[in-house]
Amino acid sequence: MRETLGVHEFARLSGRHFNTVYNWIRSGGVSARKQDGEWRIPTSELDRIRGRKGETRAGSDDLLDWWSRDFEHTMRRLVRLSTWMDRLGKQTLSRHGSSRTHVMAESRTEELTDMVTELRDVASAIETAERIRPRLLELRNRT
User: Fold this and answer.
1) Which of 3, 69, 107, 140 is deepest in the core (most CB within 10 A)?
2) Is residue 121 a contact partner of residue 128, using CB atoms and an 8 Å limit?
């Protein structure tokens, strides 16, 4: 396997949406560097995210804290976007027929759909980590 992966390949191998991976990069949850204008992520990060090796394993406090912060960040974005969508809807009604407004609404709807997908990913990961955390702590205490 190569030493680094592109965002889309990392997303595919980690089972996450590529926007989630970009969010991880922006928030510092995954270390990455730009190379020729493209984000490159060390394969060791894939192992860490999968929980194979490294300091942060699925269910650990660090990863749960990071997921919680990511979840809260996504929720804030959803609230801002829903407020914007509400305003846009009112503008559209008052300007009925504006093609520019329609294109902007479609763009924001796609963004909202992506954010909801990310939110579901994060919520699912948090639920899984919370569910398996007691077993992981028990295993950690045995070693």
Assistant:
1) 69
2) no
